[in-house]
Amino acid sequence: MKATLFKRMRWIPALAAAAALSLVGVSVNAPAAEAAAGNIDPTRSTSLTINKYDGPQGARGDGTKIDDPSSLGTPLAGVEFTITPVATKDGQTIDLKTDAGWNLIDGATIGNVTEGNGYTFGTPIKVTTDANGQVTQDLPFGLYKVEETGSGGNNIVSPAQPFLVTLPLPQSGGKWLYDVNVYPKNQTNKTKPTKEISNPTKLDIGADVTWTITAPVPPKFGDDTYRSFTITDSLDPRLTCKTIELDGFTEGTDYTATCDGQTANIEFTSTGLGKLKAGENVVMKVTTTVTSLGDNGVIENQAIVTTNDSKVTTGKPTTNWGKLEVLKYADADKASTLAGAVFEVYDSKDGQPVGTITTGADGKASIRLWVGNNDVQAKDYYLKEIKAPAGYTLPQDPWTGPISVKAGGENSPTTIDISNKQKDRGELPFTGANGQLMLTILGIALLLLAMGAAVMRYTRARKA
Fold first, then answer.
1. What sequence ranges are listed for the domain Gram-positive pilin subunit D1 N-terminal (predicted)?
2. Quick one: DSSP state of residue 64?
């Protein structure tokens, strides 16, 4: 606000104050020629009431109270203002009960009322608007600089511009306003950025997933600027940032990006801020690698979009993962676990395998799998046994499934038990009791033959 706040008309300093306030947040009509510092009532008390509303800027006020403020917008609670008395000019006290005091502020603007231009200031007073967006401060006669210094969490994009106000405030017809109402407006951020999650690049852990953040650029007051624009994405510990892309803008020129571990942020430069247009979208794509399941396998992600002093958040989409665990054991004996069974994992029988797992000495093998996004927390998978443990046979049908794998952590897997039969022994030679019987029979036969031969020899000998 660079226009002159106070412009004297002849010898009437009050007229100067009226003209000035029309340019600093309150608007007044020039008082009549007969109005002068001399008709100010020095016994009156004065106050400033700040009425804070959200909405587009309208016509300037005149310092009077608006009886029906419903058309002004939404009242904003918690907004902080700092009211600073302008104490002296060129070493002289600014006393607005005197003509000399009004003469000192002739030509004052919000831009030139600075210490460098000969002004000094009193002790600042901080005030905060209540639930009705209002705060009243009793103040002595004087010139005051009023600045908005805190947003109160109201997502303010364009704060009220600083302004000067006199107490009392000159009105038309030689009148003075001792209790002044001002209505500085704000432009708040009512946009809602969104965040979407893609399906992973593959179905087992170690896959990449891309989060797309769409951030509408909020409106601002016409004479305001975009002073900052950032998107902050603090990743879950189970995610690691891989890449960041920003549609329509050039990294290093329009923005800087940080993609490191669980940090995925962008910040616009002054060049990029100059390219922002209200109502258009800034689209940021963050590609992350899923590194683990954690306690529940449900990995959520939320981003924060900051424009000037406003902060708005996205929703919390999730990428969901679960653990599939196989127990391989000997047929009819679960305690006899089998190592070396090899399975391929599929999400459909006519597709390509997602991965391959092999049972260990405890008979177990596991794989961590994607099961869905957001509300989808289960997905069907199939196992195909392609190699049986040593000494065991592949089942006639190698497929097992569908198996509904549910989202879960390392200690809550979806389990499936699969047994194998041992291989046949084949034809073995007779042993044991049957073999001994044959030897016995053979021995008896030989004995009988020997005895027969002896008898025949004895008989022949007698006949001879």
1. 46-187
2. S
- Strand residues in 292-413 grouped as ranges (E): 298-300, 303-307, 310-313, 318-330, 333-337, 342-346, 355-358, 364-373, 378-387, 399-406
From the DSSP assignment, how many helices (H) and strands (E) are in the chain? Answer: 4, 33
CB atoms within 10 A of CB 317: 19
Neighbours of 230 (CB within 10 A): 16
Q: How many CB atoms lie within 10 A of CB 313?
A: 13
Q: What does 386-435 look like in DSSP terms, one character per residue?
A: EEPPTTB---SS-EEEEEEEE---TTS-EEEEEEEPBPP-------THHH
Q: Is 398:384 a contact under the CB 8 Å cutoff?
A: yes
Taken in order 347, 352, 357, 358, the sign of the CA dihedral is positive
Residue 415 has pLDDT above 50, yes or no: yes
**Range name among 165-179, 282-296, 441-455 with the lowest pLDDT average:** 441-455
In 3-state terms the chain splits into helix, strand, coil percentages (rounded to 5) of: 15, 40, 45
Is the Cα dihedral 350, 351, 357, 362 positive or negative? negative
Contact (Cβ atoms closer than 8 angstroms) between residue 339 and residue 363: yes
- Give the bridge partners for 333, in sequence order: 330
> Taking the mean position of all CA atoms in its chain, how far away is CA 71?
35
Token pair listed for 14: 């009050």
Q: Are 358 and 345 in contact (CB under 8 A)?
A: no
**Nearest to residue 376, comparing CAs of 327, 331, 318?**
318
Q: Are the C-beta atoms of residues 313 and 193 closer than 8 Å to each other?
A: yes
Over residues 108-161, the pLDDT tens digits come to: 999 999 999 999 999 999 999 999 999 999 999 999 999 999 999 899 999 999
Q: What is the pTM of this model?
A: 0.76
- Write out 70-124 in H/E/C secondary structure: HHHCEECCCCEEEEEEEEEECCEECCCCCHHHHHHCCCCCCCCCCHHHCEEECCC
Mean pLDDT score of the chain, rounded to an integer?
A: 88
90 and 103 Cβ atoms separated by less than 8 Å: no
- DSSP code at position 456: H
Q: What local confidence, expressed as pLDDT, does residue 267 receive?
A: 98
When pLDDT is cut at 50, 70 and 90, the band that residue 24 belongs to is very low
pLDDT for the residue 328: 97
Q: Rg (Cα) of the chain, in Å, rounded?
A: 45
